[in-house]
From TrEMBL:
The lineage of its organism: Eukaryota, Metazoa, Chordata, Craniata, Vertebrata. Keywords: Cytoplasm, Hydrolase, Metal-binding. It is an enzyme of class 3 (hydrolase). It comes from Strix occidentalis caurina. One of its GO terms (molecular function) is metal ion binding. This is Serine/threonine-protein phosphatase CPPED1. Its main location: cytoplasm. It catalyses: O-phospho-L-threonyl-[protein] + H2O = L-threonyl-[protein] + phosphate; O-phospho-L-seryl-[protein] + H2O = L-seryl-[protein] + phosphate. Belongs to the metallophosphoesterase superfamily. CPPED1 family. Its cofactor is a divalent metal cation.
Amino acid sequence: IRLIYFNLLQLPIRGKFFDEYQWKGPFYFIQGADPQFGLMKAWAVGDTNNGDDEWGEEIKLAEQAVQAINKLNPKPKFFVLCGDLIHGMPGSQWRKDQEQDLKNVLKNTDQDIPLVFVSGNHDIGNTPTKETIDNYCKNWGDDYFSFWVGGVFFLVLNSQLYFDSSKCPELKQAQDVWLNEQLAVAQKHKCKHIIVFQHIPLFLKKPDEAHDYFNLEKSVRQEIMEKFHKAGIKAVFSGHYHRNAGGSYRGLEMVVSSAIGCQLGEDTHGLRVVVVTDEKIVHRYYSLNELSSQGIEKELLDMLAKQN
């Protein structure tokens, strides 16, 4: 099993790794998506290719997100960022500066809250190559991996390989083989739930909706949905859309979370709180202001207090 990365250090979860196969009662984690340093300026000036030369607003929003998470009590088990960490595509002018500024913000995350990174299209390119993926891995950790927390099995996938793997078909095949192996591991260990993180949603609202930039092509989507359904996967958490959305397919919930950074709809900059109980997965999207000032609502805290 690949190792989870946290606090920008390539280390396994603290020596308790193997304890995590066992269910120990309800817990929660934080999902964020698309801090995408540079998009707000690029979107404002109408140049998403070269207009990303300022990202001061995104720095402030990411700092607010980290500060809100650090104040939470009890602490979340981890904080996952579902892709598009920065806006600059591979090889673009401002990319390294954007990455460094994001790392400078994230290193202030509470040391007891692991960080989990998911690769997005801006992180590895719309049509990724071995080189762009290797560069991502050097900066942020593996592009796909699995980990256990409290009897729950988590899978991080590189969804860009499902979107366009034309320049690296062997890497898509490798992820497919690995995924089948991981699902077999999950079945063997009889995990409480299986949860997937990927950048691009399978679909935004309906499983049979038309293909566009913000979801996966229909035949690819159908194959993945069936595989996930048969494996008993409960939920897929994604970003990419910069709006909240979601739906379900045969008991599989597709959760699409809006961005920490630039909003493309009517939602607010925010984070999703995800509570995992014995029977179900319950989640709510909070604006950064709301989470920072009020914390997690009593209904969710009560779920965490119940011991199964």
